[in-house]
Amino acid sequence: MITLSLTEIAAVVGGQPYDIPDPDRTVTGPVVIDSRAVVPGALFAAFAGASADGHDYAARAVADGACAVLATRPVGVPAIVVPDVTAALGALARHVVESLGATTVALTGSVGKTGTKDLIAQLLARKGPTIYPEGNLNNEIGLPLTALRADTTTEHLVLEMGARYVGDIRYLTELVPPRISVVLNVGTAHIGEFGGREKIAEAKGEIVEALPADGVAVLNADDPLVRAMADRTRARVVFFGESPNAAVRAENVRLTRQGRPAFTLHTPTGCGEVTMRLYGEHHVSNALAAAAVAHELGMPVSEIAGALSEAGTLSRWRMEVTERPDGVTIVNDAYNANPESMRAALRALAAMGQDAQSRGGRTWAVLGLMAELGDEALAEHDAVGRLAVRLNVSKLVAVGGREASWLQLGAYNEGSWGEESVHVSDAQAAADLLRSELRPGDVVLVKASRSAGLERLAQTLIDDAAVAADGRGAGR
């Protein structure tokens, strides 16, 4: 964060100083909400959560080097007391960003936000210092925390903006107004809360309504609901996609034998060949969005193509591929799931399986619930199970309760798989099954909504092979 005194911070957030012996002391470190992340010079923001209250850790934070605590009550150590810590955090973020000359790039979409953010960040980092979210910090707390990491050297600020309700993104754009806004797609994530895709589109479109007249809206030409958002902004519009009318588009899209996408990138200033390190054709659209942003900021197409070909993932549990010593490949995509991302992951698994099957391997889809689908839950889980059959996935393991049973039933009814699709009660049962069944060459996809906790299952499967390898080594 830029250097600010405690007096200046109190003025920005409208807070009252308490127990501060030196009001001119400056915050030189980050703003953190976890006392374990405190470093000397930090500002600790105390939130009262469901299981813990940050105010109870105020003394520890200061003892570990925090200059002060942003709190809703006096805590016996240096503090700036405010009525609402979330609002104060947002006000501080807006003040910091307004004092800098960085270009703010904001993106939203039902699927692919974090992966696209990672790509944009890797491209723009080649042009200059770039701040981006760690993981998917995309709400009223996470977004300010990311913005507050910016300092006087920052040239680009890349931000995710998520929403559960209409108005959420509008609030975030008021905290950190974007210069470039990107909308990836309108899917069914959180459809239970929104009540329909049209409402989701209404919410996502708030990100382009916030643009100034000299800003840029980067919109997916292949999604009709996104394409229509061009009418909701006074900014210049740049379309990306596989549509021939898109200014930044992909042609000759294909997958390598390993399931990695390759394509010819077309821009208004030239073309370039891209072969990505990431897995799955769904990354093509994400790459085009990132390319459009980089092109708008003056990056040559040859450099864009090269950077996309070298880019990896910066965020955990998103198509994270691990090859075990015994020849089994684990694909951990268990951070979250909705119908669109589930279908994309299954297609990626099927593509990876073509190479695996040539070596005698099989594909396993280990899937759990997709949360927050409301009345669409049964139909969507059934459809995913059916898709696994149509893609010739070798084995489906549906993990969990009612939703998992719908996944398994969809697969069974589509292809009469019998023993090829199975429903197990929990992650432990899935681990036991896979331990007894996996063989060299198999590829295992693990995916579900975060609430299912299947990322732990994926890690267990990875650790199993490491333990086995160590055991063999110890016996020699």
Automatic annotation (TrEMBL):
Pathway noted in the entry = Cell wall biogenesis; peptidoglycan biosynthesis
**An individual GO BP term:** cell division
Q: Which cell locations does it reside in?
A: Cytoplasm
Recorded E.C. number(s)?
Answer: 6.3.2.10
One GO MF term, please? ATP binding
Keyword set for this entry? ATP-binding, Cell cycle, Cell division, Cell shape, Cell wall biogenesis/degradation, Cytoplasm, Ligase, Nucleotide-binding, Peptidoglycan synthesis
The regions listed as transmembrane in this protein's record are none
Q: Which residues form the Mur ligase N-terminal catalytic domain?
A: 31-88
Kindly give the SUPFAM superfamilies that the UniProt entry links to this protein: MurD-like peptide ligases, catalytic domain (SSF53623), MurD-like peptide ligases, peptide-binding domain (SSF53244), MurE/MurF N-terminal domain (SSF63418)
Which family does the record assign?
Belongs to the MurCDEF family. MurF subfamily.
Q: Which NCBIfam families match?
A: murF
Q: Which HAMAP family did the record assign?
A: MurF
Under which name does UniProt file this protein? Answer: UDP-N-acetylmuramoyl-tripeptide--D-alanyl-D-alanine ligase
The species this protein was found in:
Streptomyces tsukubensis (strain DSM 42081 / NBRC 108919 / NRRL 18488 / 9993)
